[in-house]
């Protein structure tokens, strides 16, 4: 089936060279092919002078960050829909966007030739690429590994005398993270998450299934598990890789589920609160990494605000914590305002951060779909909704997967913005890659969300930001099947007349001085 891609035609429209229509798969848009010598790239972006604006369009019809430019007008055109930027309404500041360097991602990237590897890393991390600044790094194995392991598998090793990084870290993830950092114009924000403690520390004596740490917070297993985090930070620091943040553990609710099929460690919010207060917080504070942030939850937002209330209402735990990490699965089951919004208003001193999302996880819509615009819209909608509810960054899951959506030892195959075809030494940039780009490339760290109001009800979704240099970025998603005409009014500069094509994502940017 994947070879069919190359017997199909280049889309007659606005798709960049090297981007192919996905009709042969029954999917609705284009996929862009890159090799060791060619990749479509938006390049470095500089805004035009005051009085003009830049636009970047991606669409179901085949546009991929298609650049445009226009004049800011002094007077309104009287367009039916006006979006007014309200710069004095200030909200959260952006931390960044990125993806995860899982074992599977590293295996896939390294399966390409040196030239293609470099191209792939440039697409994500360089200033010509889409400007990823966050990389989530699993601590030891997860389902996107080829085997089960931790860094301390010797039973009874409470002093962690035998703690050692895996070949997957030393030979794959670490070298790739170093290369990504070398390509990035700014320091990467590395984020560590553990899936499971070693089996001998756990109630079920296994890495998978329903199980939690033996004993109680403050006890020897809980203390050793906290030291395991410190040892991980120490080992990575030897390779000049330091972590901005770590989470209290991936999806603690999974480890409370019977028959859970892959690596998990169960925590109730009460147990997580006490483990942070008695063990992890003090251990990190006393270590060489007291400035590394602790993010709680690292699980679906439907657990909010309850989880945050239990943990953050405790003064002993709360003093060590910086933020709340959320995953996107099941976001449709709970309104963003009831989970994210309420949590922010209750605990404004703690930031909200998206740590995992992927398409193709749902059993009804599983695995890789080359050229699916619907999935690009799912990403853009969720990112926009999160940003409009105080989230400061959004992290995709695997940076790259193979054509089956793996490897994954438990066959939990999903999709990725980059799909690697080792046989042909190429990789494909999915529509979701461009969804990420509309945010990651333009919303620099320190950009602040500001108010934006619509003159009437509209199908458009939108979010506005003022960047550290004073320029304005407005991102607009049209998930409807109609073209929508609108104008933007920025009181500081004037009016911008624009169009959101059906099923499109549009980024507008302009200088204010």
UniProtKB/TrEMBL annotation:
GO cellular component terms, A-Z: lysosomal membrane
Organism of derivation: Lates calcarifer (Barramundi)
Gene expressing this chain: GBA1
GO BP field: autophagy; cholesterol metabolic process; glucosylceramide catabolic process; lysosome organization; negative regulation of macromolecule metabolic process; protein catabolic process; regulation of macroautophagy; regulation of membrane potential
InterPro entries listed in its UniProt record: GH (IPR017853), GH30_C (IPR033452), Glyco_hydro_30 (IPR001139), Glyco_hydro_30_TIM-barrel (IPR033453)
Glycosyl hydrolase family 30 beta sandwich domain boundaries: 446-508
Keywords: Glycosidase, Hydrolase, Lipid metabolism, Signal, Sphingolipid metabolism
Family per record: Belongs to the glycosyl hydrolase 30 family.
Record EC number: 3.2.1.45
Protein's name according to its UniProt entry: Glucosylceramidase
Top-level class of the enzyme under EC nomenclature: hydrolase
Membrane topology, from the record: Peripheral membrane protein
GO molecular-function terms, A-Z: galactosylceramidase activity; glucosylceramidase activity; glucosyltransferase activity; signaling receptor binding; steryl-beta-glucosidase activity
Location of this chain's protein in the cell: Lysosome membrane
